[in-house]
Amino acid sequence: MHELTPDYRVQPATHRSGGSDVARWRRAERKRLIDARMALDPDERNRRSKRIASRLEAALGRPGGRILAAYWPVRGEPDLRNWMIRAFERGSRIALPIVIAKNRPLEFSLWSPGDRLERGVWDMLVPARGTAVQPDVIVAPGVGFDEADHRLGYGGGLLDRTLAAMSRKPQVIGVGYAESRIRTIYPQPFDVPMDFVVTDG
Q1: Boundaries of every domain in the chain
Q2: What is the pLDDT of residue 1?
Q3: Which residues, in sequence order, are bridge partners of residue 127?
Q4: Which residues does the chain have with pLDDT short of 50?
Q5: Any idea of the CA torsion for 65, 66, 70, 72, to the nearest 10 degrees?
Q6: What CATH class is the domain 20-198?
Q7: Is the pTM of this model over 0.70?
Q8: Residue 173 burial (CB < 10 Å; 0-12/13-18/19+)?
């Protein structure tokens, strides 16, 4: 499994308390990981995004007419937009997440290449017009992923809340750069593990 990076030293006293130790550790680790990916050269980030897309295609096989929920990249996340277009051309339907409010589950809206996007909550790009759907597969970028495939996100709990509210659980695939793999995120009871994680490593 992946070893800790040299600067990965400060650990919370317990991973089950749900208290301030874990929250402080997560904030610091989240900042470290985001800073690292933002420091990547744009060309390097593009090459590594293509590698992740290739591995994602291999893992999914031919998704056919399934609804694949992906994302519009922000803050140095892997850019899978070309993969989304290829999947659409091969018969998949593509959906993008929409933030309704901070404490509500995400919704998903169908998107086709060329569709107009507009700024939504937190300035996220979302389909200007689209049909609400429940995805069969969710491709979820993460700030970090641990050895048990728990995901460290941006701290809002949106994905965990969304999965808990779904009547039919989709396949959930985490994506990130190799450096996003860490030993543990000190998972809490509400942290839902990914079905698997794809990186460029």
Answers
A1: 20-198
A2: 32
A3: 117
A4: 1-17
A5: 30
A6: alpha beta
A7: yes
A8: buried
